[in-house]
From TrEMBL:
InterPro entries: DUF4031 (IPR025109), HD_phosphohydro (IPR009218). This is DUF4031 domain-containing protein. Residues 47-121 form the DUF4031 domain. It holds the Pfam family DUF4031. The lineage of its organism: Bacteria, Bacillati, Actinomycetota, Actinomycetes, Micrococcales.
């Protein structure tokens, strides 16, 4: 786990926590007594709406967006009497009967295609691959597929009862995957949700594509699923509890012969390593694994730092949301300490493959963010609140 307010697993202590709301700093205006009591948006209005053509619940819906800030969007929606439940990560779904009213209030009319392009250009759009509800089926299929070769091969203990045991283990594996995914989908996770898990698995596949085996070892797949299974913003303790959960959950699969003891040991080691992002001594490695495996795992977890600028800003916005219980000054101080710590390393990524892929863009992102904190901290905080 890469904590944005700590370094090497040691949390930075701050005072002055603040109370977090659903939209963090995007609270609605005071005047919401009736739907028609709108604030004035004649200056710098950047709220847009497309025609009501999307069918659901016996009517059709429009999408309401901002091209500047979610704070502005929430404020406009609240003044219009639109429920928070209508918000879907980057837009509001509004029924057809509100369309004319919202246009009169100042929402600018765009076609569906124009609205989509506007939202993408704003940097506020959340792609489908980062939406937990959209990637859920694919992740569950991938989880079960990781075990399929072993469930379909008579390598289990008690071979004489293989068919019955396979049925039991198949159900057990599916239940474990569902339980883990529910943990990843907890509502307080704004960055460390299943979108991060999905991307980390993809990063591992990319790093292993040129290795002899050509695919990510099962132990690393499992470690990815468990490494942030517990996420309460408590550095060190989260990793300890995630490691404990991995051991408790996977030991029965070792007993049944579905996993090897060395694989469980490797899962435990990898989850523990995310607390510090440091390599253990070679002597501590389970049989069959190399330091390169740990390097790949830790690098895959860090790869978000090399994302394109729009994705990096969404990551940073998610981090700010997860740390919304810290006031602005505390967050700024902690984040800049983190940035300087990472930039001060001789190299951010441990493996040669990741170094070639991600080192340069990661340093560019981190340096650009640090410059923003130094030159215009209030502007950056305002952008992250959107």
């Amino acid at each position: 786990m890469l904590y944005p307010l700590s370094y090497e697993g040691v949390p930075i202590q701050y005072k002055a926590p603040r109370t977090a709301s659903r939209h963090s700093q995007c609270s609605p205006p005071e005047d919401t007594r009736t739907r028609r009591h709108y604030r004035s948006y004649n200056v710098r209005m950047s709220i847009y709406i497309d025609p009501p053509t999307w069918p659901a619940h016996g009517t059709v819906f429009s999408h309401l967006i901002s091209d500047a800030s979610l704070a502005e969007l929430h404020e406009f929606a609240a003044a219009a009497g639109i429920s928070e439940r209508a918000f879907d990560r980057d837009h509001y779904d509004v029924p057809a009967h509100l369309y004319d009213e919202l246009v009169r209030a100042g929402a600018k009319e765009l076609s569906g295609a124009e609205l989509t392009r506007t939202l993408i250009a704003s940097g506020l759009r959340i792609p489908l691959k980062e939406r937990p509800e959209k990637i859920r089926p694919r992740l569950l299929r991938a989880w079960e597929a990781a075990f399929a070769p072993r469930l379909n091969t008579p390598r289990l203990k008690h071979v004489e009862a293989h068919a019955e045991l396979r049925t039991q283990l198949t159900a057990q594996v599916a239940e474990l995957g569902e339980s883990l995914l529910q943990a990843w989908e907890q509502p307080h996770r704004a960055y460390h949700h299943s979108g991060h898990l999905s991307q980390m698995l993809a990063n591992l596949d990319r790093l292993y594509a040129h290795r002899t085996q050509g695919s990510t070892p099962l132990a690393l797949v499992l470690a990815a699923w468990f490494h942030d299974a517990v996420y309460e913003g408590a550095p060190g303790e989260d990793e300890r509890r995630s490691e404990q959960l991995a051991n408790t959950s996977l030991e029965p699969l070792v007993t049944a012969g579905l996993l090897d003891g060395d694989e469980l040991q490797m899962v435990s080691l990898l989850v523990r390593a995310t607390a510090t992002h440091e390599l253990p001594e070679s002597a501590d490695l389970p049989a069959g694994y190399e330091r390169a495996d740990i390097q790949f795992f830790l690098d895959a977890d860090m790869a978000i730092l090399a994302a394109d600028s729009t994705r990096y800003r969404r990551y940073l916005r998610g981090v700010r949301s997860e740390y919304s219980h810290f006031d602005d000054e505390a967050f700024r101080a902690g984040r800049t300490t983190f940035l300087r710590s990472i930039l001060g390393r001789k190299r951010i990524f441990l493996s040669e493959q990741a170094l070639q892929l991600w080192e340069e863009p990661a340093r560019a992102n981190l340096q650009a963010e640090l410059s923003e904190w130094v030159q215009d901290p209030q502007g950056l905080l305002q952008a992250l609140a959107s």
